[in-house]
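Much of our argument rests on the idea that a fold can be written as discrete symbols. The amino acid sequence and the backbone structure tokens for this protein are reproduced below:

___
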Amino acid sequence: MNRSKKIELVDKAVSQLKAYDEVYRKMYHLTGFSPESTLSEAVNAMYENIIELTSYCIDDVGEFLHWYIYENKFGKGGMMVTVCGKGYEVKSIGQLVDIIEMYYDIIGGEFE
């Protein structure tokens, strides 16, 4: 898959995940359901499946998409990631895909 297709796929996945976040927040405020509820577990499973499947499709062997979403807050954190001793700021999906491709090329990895 080429870079532009990867960016398009990640963009769609991120948009869907943000929509799930919004629905989750609204449902919580309306119902006050617990994070351990069946509904919450189902939404969390869908969320994680989107991340895992997207990562697989874009050869994200370093799990950078997971990091981008959870730790870097969809790029809002502007956090740095280090690849081969060099730091890179990741604020956009394009930058994320660049890191994923660089890491894959360096390790020549297969997705486990």
